[in-house]
Amino acid sequence: MNNTDVLIAGAGPTGLTLAVDRARRGVACRIVDQAPEPAGGSKGKGLQPRTQEVFDDLGVVAPILAASAPYSPLRVRIGRVPVWQARMHRRDAATDAVPYPTVVMHPQWRTEAVLRERLAELGGKVEQGVALDGFEQDGQGVTARLGSGESVRARYLVAADGGRSTVRKALGIGFTGETREEQRSALADVRAEGLGREHIHVWVRPGRGMVALYPMAGTDTFQLLAPLRPGAGPEPTLAWYQRLFAERSMLRGVRLTELLWSSHYRVNIRLADRYRSGRVLLAGDAAHVHPPAGGQGLNTGVQDAYNLGWKLARTLAGGRRARLFDLLRGPHFTLLSPDPAPRVAGGPEVRAYVPARPYGGERHTLKDDRAASTATPATLTSSPCCGSPTAPAGFTGGWRSRRRSTRRPRARAPRPTTSGCSS
């Protein structure tokens, strides 16, 4: 049986971020993914300011910014007639305190590729096509069975295997929330002729629906987004997407020429009943899923992994530092913690950046009204403040909008829970 400190299930942005952090700290780690090859698709394309700070510390921000760009102006039309235009994000100047103030567009497939390259530089690799078939745990670690027939003994298992997490299901952890079947959309990466790339193009046809084309930074492709009517489903063919585009845009001079990737999604808003069961931890979509607006899924997942990474490193080092892992007690622990990550020996300086201003002067947070004293997994903002030495201003929780407050929130102690699970 092979041993490792941390076994990561899932090689999306969350799992890759954690694997890079483990590798740069010299912590023994393996990352497995059941897919035979890396996923494609632009999907989570917006990188928020705090995520860029995280990528800076991990040594990957340079290649990402070299191939990214701020969002283009949004132009809405009915046919060829423009009816509205605006920018999705305000452009601010970089400062020492907020070095990356602007949301940038960068397709998810490339974000994952950059993280895989960084992992390889640090001596790691993704074990592609290797599923996690099962696991058992005790007080000292987890014994995992891989699809390759190998057994692995790890001190901790981190589930970064998405919203349909097999690890979360094996633990019997509930995924509280809702799936909005009536809110579904088709999503695709396409090439198109006869259309400029200086705007995000949105067409609305009354009675037929909306279709949008986002020019993907650093590529010659567009991301197509189109809400679907209840009961309708997309066909994964270029002809189907061309018919949908022509019907809703009413344009004859623009033609989709190639379908590179396609999918469809339903809006899910869910939160795992707890994030930890003994030596098994949930992160990213395995712990919480969000509506697609604002790139919340990718950004909170990356920041989950980054914050969990340094806490795991201190815990694995043992001694007094192990007490830090008490932060991960209770049904929900703060993954996007206000604590700054400590500096890595030989690595770049890590500063406690102040948060960028939220767009529109509002901050959105997730509320837990249950009697248990809990911490939220993430503050869902344009620039999460997990690098700030204090909790975000106005942090009270809630699927509601809060005006920023200067009053510091009252700290609440997490409620201990029993550990242990069966798979």
Main β-sheet description: 8 strands, mixed
Helix/strand order: EHEEHHEEEEHEEEEHEEEEHEEEEHEE
Task: Give the CA-based shape.
Answer: globular
Poorly predicted runs of 5 or more residues? 329-423
* Rg calculated over all Cα atoms: 22 Å
* Overall pLDDT score: 79
Query: What is the end-to-end distance?
Result: 19 Å
Share of β-strand residues: 25-35%
Category by helix and strand content: alpha+beta
Helical content stands at 10-25%
Query: Can you count the helices?
Result: 7
Number of strands: 21
What does it look like?
The protein has 423 residues and is α+β, with helices and mostly antiparallel strands. The chain is built from seven helices and 21 strands. The protein has helices at 13-24, 49-58, 61-66, 108-121, 166-171, 238-249, 296-317; strands at 2-9, 29-33, 46-47, 69-70, 74-78, 81-86, 104-105, 126-128, 132-137, 142-146, 151-159, 175-193, 200-205, 209-215, 222-228, 255-272, 276-277, 280-282, 288-289, 362-365, 400-403. The strands form four sheets. Strands 1, 2, 8, 9, 10, 11, 17 and 18 form an eight-stranded mixed beta sheet that branches. Mean pLDDT is 79; it is low at 329-423.
Topology:
Elements: E1 2-9, H1 13-24, E2 29-33, E3 46-47, H2 49-58, H3 61-66, E4 69-70, E5 74-78, E6 81-86, E7 104-105, H4 108-121, E8 126-128, E9 132-137, E10 142-146, E11 151-159, H5 166-171, E12 175-193, E13 200-205, E14 209-215, E15 222-228, H6 238-249, E16 255-272, E17 276-277, E18 280-282, E19 288-289, H7 296-317, E20 362-365, E21 400-403
Parallel strand pairs: 1-2, 1-11, 2-8, 5-13, 11-18
Antiparallel strand pairs: 3-7, 4-7, 5-6, 9-10, 10-11, 12-15, 12-16, 13-14, 14-15, 16-19, 17-18, 20-21
